[in-house]
Amino acid sequence: MSHAIRFHSTGAPDVLQWEVFEPAAPAAGEARVRHHAVGLNYIDTYHRTGLYPVPLPSGIGLEGAGVVEAVGAGVTEVAVGDRVAYAGGPLGAYAEMRNIPADRLVKLPDAISFEQGAAMMLQGLTAQYLLRRTYRVQPGDTILIHAAAGGVGLLVCQWAKALGATVIGTVGSDEKAAIARAHGCDHPIVYTREKFAERVREITAGEGVPVVYDSIGADTFMDSLSCLRPLGMMVLFGAASGPVAPFDCGLLAKMGSLFLTRPTLFTYIAKRTDLVAMAAELFEVVVSGKVRLEINQRYALKDAAQAHRDLEARKTTGSTILLP
């Protein structure tokens, strides 16, 4: 017997239930992974609340790290005993063990722990595609990243700094400003007392930035657009404050022929060759020390509901993991 977090209806964190289940043998193309650590991500709250609808009842969680215990027929990507990590569907990472398509797994280098693997995959691969594929940051660029003290934010700050960029980041408090600054954010803006769009224009001498990475959504979208220089790119990769309302696309022309994209990690890693290449680049910057992971919160897996409460209350910084 094993345990997993599941939910039978959408709603507040209390819908998350700690349930017993009997693990099935891996099907063809699957591997069974015994988790040593599981990642907590804001997208998990979207599934729980129904913002991103999923069939119910459902498991939850998209990221974990552990050891392969068994493989199904035809599996060549991993073998029993391999240390592995993953980010992506199907849902079900909040579990002591699970079966998952083997082509979604990547082997963890010996230099990276299970906790690091669980904390880094979804957020780290997100940082990779944002900085290296959606808008390829160049030395001398000045970028804006919202939620700079969050999990993705801290990784983006460090990685962008290593690439030679100047980093502007929004945060909710002086404490978070200090954390962001310590991780490469040159200009933390405390949005609770400063108008970030005005500060960005001041910092850039009125020019604006070539790219804004925005995971906040409704509360920041229009002001984020106003931070961009002509031909700038608005990268809307989340909606922590709610989805962006419909707007007139003509605004993009009026504000300087701006580009707008709404990317998802799952599109970028849909092909295994892309997943493996992106993970290799992520592992390299972490092992080299250019990017360090900050696991600032650890919860027992069975306490996932409390972890969600703290995440939504913005009480967390850096990465959070759940321990089976």
How is this structure best described in words?
Residues 11-322 form the Enoyl reductase (ER) domain. Keywords: NADP, Oxidoreductase. GO terms for molecular function: mRNA 3'-UTR AU-rich region binding; NADPH binding; quinone reductase (NADPH) activity; zinc ion binding. This is Quinone oxidoreductase. This protein has 324 residues and is an alpha/beta fold. It has two domains: 2-121 and 272-323, Alpha-Beta Complex (Quinone Oxidoreductase, Chain A, domain 1), CATH 3.90.180.10; 139-262, NAD(P)-binding Rossmann-like Domain (Rossmann fold, 3-Layer(aba) Sandwich). The protein has helices spanning 42-49, 114-134, 151-162, 174-182, 196-203, 221-226, 250-254, 265-268, 272-287, 304-312, and strands spanning 2-7, 17-21, 30-40, 58-59, 63-71, 83-87, 97-101, 106-107, 142-145, 166-171, 187-190, 209-214, 228-236, 259-261, 295-300, 319-323. Strands 3, 5, 6, 7, 8, 15 and 16 form a seven-stranded mixed β-sheet that branches. The protein has a six-stranded parallel β-sheet with strand order 11-10-9-12-13-14, with helices on both faces. The relative contact order is 0.15.
